[in-house]
């Protein structure tokens, strides 16, 4: 064995303890770490010829790279929609690497049985009783949903897109789709140009269902309904969209990347009314479930069609069984057991724990909205419906001035927020989805914003 490897093996318990202690210092220091840092530029280092062993690698990382890492896992990082990592999810993720299972199939391990349990727990959490699988993020979850919808549309004329390719253009209809929908369409050969924007309601990001109906009258399509838009967390009327199924042929995919967590609180679950009628559903887990990157779940009503798209038959892997292995249902073949971190999180905190996190995050968002409203520097661009505050400068809200204000907040190290454009207005989004965030953080964030 290579000497440094043999030394690391001999010293494994002590090295793991040092790594654990290092992780502990990082986590207990989260509050003092700048919430965001600029990228630290280093002169390139050459590939080590002999390496330094784990202890040396830890030292090099700690001095060269770690200082440039942000506190994105902490309570005042409100950029994008960024969750943190709960203690149980962290432990589950460590053990995922320690056990290093390949969750492609059921041969020789219970790993995939655990994944099925985690998917069914998520289904129970969200009120969606159907099969599903773990994928790397909402982009991949959307891609799997659209791929299955593509197969369904092909089957209407007796064909199979999986076998023959796309022979007739497929339209994807949506009011305010996330950018990952166009990306998935590009990957799937549907073409970004076939994403048909459907009118939204006045002053809303939710789709105008009457306009959607007019598009559906032109022929079968995939409908991407949005359950939580990124700017204002607006929800399409999923019940009304699902009702159109009795009159028109369409595949209903719901992108509920973070809005799906409305289901865990009776206060917000009505926003998702009707979503159980969807053919496929996307929910991100590295956002509001607060598991580490990268993790999402996709739910499907038609595992048979999903199998046609993703089946991966070979002499050494065998043919799919009655309950197909995950490698026959997802883009990956070899797969990380990312279900384990989610399983630990759900085992540790359960339904009640997630309800508390979601309700506290929404409370924080509403508090922040109220404070911005009372002050004179900022103004809200939409009501705070769930966990995102969308706002802009009260006066002279140019792209440059919004950026300057956000840069100043980031330089203070107190908070991190990201810019957007809402209905043509340069704006800011503050997205609450971290399990650690409290009202005291809202106070610090608002002070940093001069609100
Ligand atoms: C974040 C998000 C996505 C993309 O998710 P990734 O996990 O970054 O792939 C898709 N849709 C919505 C609504 C999102 O918020």
Automatic annotation (TrEMBL):
GO biological process, one term: carboxylic acid metabolic process
Keyword Cytoplasm: no
Transmembrane intervals: none
Superkingdom, taxonomy of origin: Bacteria
Pfam annotation, one family: Pyridoxal_deC
UniProt keyword Lyase present: yes
Molecular functions (GO terms): aromatic-L-amino-acid decarboxylase activity; pyridoxal phosphate binding
Keywords for the protein's UniProt record, in alphabetical order: Antibiotic biosynthesis, Decarboxylase, Lyase, Pyridoxal phosphate
Cofactor(s) listed in the protein's UniProt record: pyridoxal 5'-phosphate
Positions carrying N6-(pyridoxal phosphate)lysine: 287
PANTHER family: GROUP II PYRIDOXAL-5-PHOSPHATE DECARBOXYLASE (PTHR11999), MIP05841P (PTHR11999:SF70)
Entry's family note: Belongs to the group II decarboxylase family.
The protein, known as: Glutamate or tyrosine decarboxylase
Species whose genome carries this gene: Amycolatopsis saalfeldensis
């Amino acid at each position: 064995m290579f000497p440094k490897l043999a030394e690391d093996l001999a010293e494994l318990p002590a090295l793991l303890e040092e790594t654990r202690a290092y992780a502990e210092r990082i986590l207990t220091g989260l509050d003092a770490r700048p919430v965001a840092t600029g990228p630290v530029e280093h002169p390139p280092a050459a590939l080590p010829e002999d390496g330094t062993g784990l202890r040396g690698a830890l030292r090099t990382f700690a001095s060269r790279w770690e200082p440039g890492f942000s506190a994105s896992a902490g309570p005042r990082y409100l950029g994008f929609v960024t969750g943190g990592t709960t203690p149980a999810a962290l432990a589950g993720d460590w053990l995922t690497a320690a056990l290093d299972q390949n969750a492609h199939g059921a041969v020789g391990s219970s790993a995939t049985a655990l994944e099925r349990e985690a998917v069914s727990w998520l289904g129970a959490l969200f009120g969606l009783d159907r099969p599903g699988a773990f994928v790397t993020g909402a982009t991949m979850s959307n891609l799997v949903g659209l791929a299955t919808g593509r197969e369904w549309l092909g089957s209407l004329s007796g064909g199979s897109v999986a076998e023959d390719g796309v022979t007739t253009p497929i339209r994807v209809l949506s009011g305010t789709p996330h950018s990952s929908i166009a990306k998935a369409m590009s990957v799937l050969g549907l073409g970004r140009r076939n994403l048909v924007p459907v009118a939204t309601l006045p002053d809303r990001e939710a789709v105008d269902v009457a306009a959607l109906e007019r598009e559906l009258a032109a022929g079968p399509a995939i409908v991407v309904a949005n359950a939580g838009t990124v700017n204002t967390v607006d929800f399409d009327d999923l019940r009304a969209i699902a009702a159109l199924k009795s009159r028109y042929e369409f595949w209903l995919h719901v992108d509920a990347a973070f809005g799906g967590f409305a289901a865990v609180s009776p206060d917000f679950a009505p926003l998702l009314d009707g979503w159980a009628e969807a053919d496929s559903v996307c929910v991100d887990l590295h956002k509001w479930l607060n598991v580490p990157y990268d993790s999402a779940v996709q739910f499907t009503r038609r595992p048979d069609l999903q199998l046609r798209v993703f089946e991966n038959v070979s002499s050494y892997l065998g043919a799919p069984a009655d309950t197909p292995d995950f490698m026959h249902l997802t883009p990956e073949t070899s797969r990380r057991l990312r279900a384990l971190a989610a399983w630990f999180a759900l085992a540790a905190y359960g339904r009640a724990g997630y309800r508390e996190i979601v309700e506290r995050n929404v409370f924080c968002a509403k508090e922040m909205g109220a404070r911005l409203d009372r002050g004179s520097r900022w103004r809200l661009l939409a009501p705070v419906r769930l966990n995102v505050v969308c706002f802009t400068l009260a006066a002279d809200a140019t792209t440059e001035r919004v950026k300057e204000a956000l840069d100043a907040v980031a330089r203070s190290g107190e908070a991190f927020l990201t810019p957007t454009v809402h209905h043509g207005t340069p704006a800011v989004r503050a997205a609450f989805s971290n399990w650690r965030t409290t009202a005291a953080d809202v106070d610090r964030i608002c002070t940093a914003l001069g609100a």
